[in-house]
Amino acid sequence: MSLSLVWQILLDGWIVFELLLLVVTRTRRDQGKVNDRGSLLLLWLAIGVSLAVAFRIADAMPRNLLAHAVWLSPLCLGILVLGFALRLTAIAMLGRAFSVNVAIREKQSLKQDRLYAWMRHPSYSGMVLMFFAIGLAERNWISLLILVIVPGAALFYRIHVEEAALRTAFGDEYVEYSRRVKRLLPGIY
Fold first, then answer.
1. How many Cα atoms within 13 Å fall on the side-chain side of residue 77?
2. Where does the sequence pass through the membrane (predicted)?
């Protein structure tokens, strides 16, 4: 199986996974009050537009980013797999508490162990890795910047919305947790 076929299968699988996640968790009746502030729509728009624009630019312009580096494609594939695995694991660890909506269920506890002991938003860390891998794989500086900055900005807004909801729901417990644990990158941010 060629590397490009594996790449395409992973990308298509990720898109299908995200769509299924959207349908399954957005329609759950047992979630708490939704306080999304438009962040989910913004995130989906940012992802769709940035992917479309980045792919179009990469096709129209020279591939000037490490164009002849034979090691780049396997590296990008590895980063993509790592990001997807991180996102899947983070979602699985939350179990039924996970939702694409910003909502805290009644009697929900604050997850602070395993991956969540290292970063507050590991599923978003996984997404950042995935967009970095896709942008780098396009071998075009502009595509890379678009795929990191546009979804990144939407994710930062989403994180701001989620953290406001978590502070409201968990109060001092969340404030203390956020002092100890960084958002996306352990020990750094």
1. 14
2. 6-27, 39-58, 70-94, 115-135, 141-159
Residue closest to 87 by CA, chosen among 28, 151, 27: 151
> Is 65 inside a domain boundary?
yes
Distances (CA, A) of 4 to 9, 75, 91, 113: 9, 13, 27, 37
Domain count across the chain: 1
pTM to 2 decimal places: 0.91
Write the DSSP assignment of 137-183 as a string of letters. HTT-HHHHHHHHHHHHHHHHHHHHHHHHHHHHHHTHHHHHHHHHS-S
Helix, strand, coil: what percent of the chain each, to 5? 70, 0, 30
Range of the domain at 165: 37-97+104-180
How far is the C-alpha of 32 from the C-alpha of 151, rounded, in Å? Answer: 26
pLDDT given for residue 4 in this prediction:
84
**Tens digits of residue pLDDT in 22-33:** 888 766 655 667
Can you tell me the mean pLDDT for 117-126?
98
